[in-house]
Amino acid sequence: MWSAYPTWLNPGDNAWQMTAATLVGLMSIPGLAVLYGGVMQKRWSVNSMMMTFVAFSLVIVLWVLWGFKMAFGEPQHLFGASHGILANLWGKPGSVLGHIAEQGQAGIPLITTGPAFHFPTSTLVYFQLVFAAITPLLMLGSVLGRFNFKAWIPFVLLWSSLVYTVNAFAIWGGGWFAQHGALDYSGGYVIHLAAGVSGFVAAAVVGPRLMRDREVDAPNNLLMVATGAGLLWLGWNGFNGGDPYYAGASASAAVLNTNLATACALLTWVGLDYATRRKPSLIGTVNGMITGLVAITPAAGYVNGWGAGAIGIVGCIVVYFALNYLSRMWPFRKVDDTLGVIYTHGFAGLSGGLLVAVFADPKMIIYPGIGKTADITPFAGIVHGNWHLLKEQIFAALWVIIFSAIVTFILLKLINLVIPLRMKEADLEEGDLAVHGHEVYPSDVPSLGLPPTTAAPPVAPEPAPTG
Asked: ∠ CA 411-146-206 to the nearest 5 degrees?
């Protein structure tokens, strides 16, 4: 009898994986677009949203044409190396467009140990696509308000191809760090640490915003900020809940851990504001929320509920003091990181990745019977008597920090030889009207040579009613 489902396809797993991917996509479009559009000054709102939409579209195209296989394909032996780190950092580029109906390949994060997925390659590509797409969008938060829109396009293409895919393959796709036991459940290192470091480097290279933008750094619409933040929080259920690749117990645990850690971090941030005699603000509370989401990301499926709560609290304390106190020290005080991405994503991702080595619980269910790796027991954390994982987490973090910083710097310098990275001073003064020809809150006031609005003819008063 004819069936819509091949024998290898599980409709429940497939449906959840596509749903989870869409939740992650909503974090970018409209989540980050709305958040950025609201948190920036009104003359940068349109530009912030436009850069978000364009980057998301660029990554979709490059991902299906060459990016996915570079991150999750066969190893590309660099410089002829047949073994060692140079043989296990990058996948061979290639298109996936001719294979989208086939069964998804086994093996994320370790190519040779995972069971075959119960959904097609198209679902797997889509799920990994939205992770790849959100990473440059997070980095964008560091350089809003001065990065040249024309330069942003080649930068996203090159950075996603040469930085993101390398980190993804090395840690997730069966590369060097995955083979040595480093754990990054959903992207604390691959996404958030890389975005934080690369954004910080980009902010340093491009230079600061105008002084008046830095002195009066006021959001133009807090309602948009709250809406975008809410989309991030709920969308994160797909971010972490989809990474078991099965609609099972691990997905449920990861979702609950995500929300628990986030709530703990948000409340800790508010408590720290009171403890340091600050008034709790919406922007600060959103920073606490994001910190919790990021910190639990590398650990969501590896820790129990106690570990998740602890990661939210500890990660929040680290980021709070980094943002409010370390930011006054060199080199952080020298760099205008517009939205503090180095703190809420860089420091939070690093903290969460290291805390995996503390709280990883060998009793957590990842894949029934075999674990997310061939044997989960060696990946127990310090509280379960194992110190080995800490070394692997440190090495993987150092790789992401150093590699991402160096390659980002090189790419920016090369692009600047062709297209200026920084907007012209006149465009910086004018903002959205200069770059895109319109603004988020149109005005009837004539500005910069634009034709004035024709005034409406006076309306004659209505005659008084007669009785």
From this structure: 35
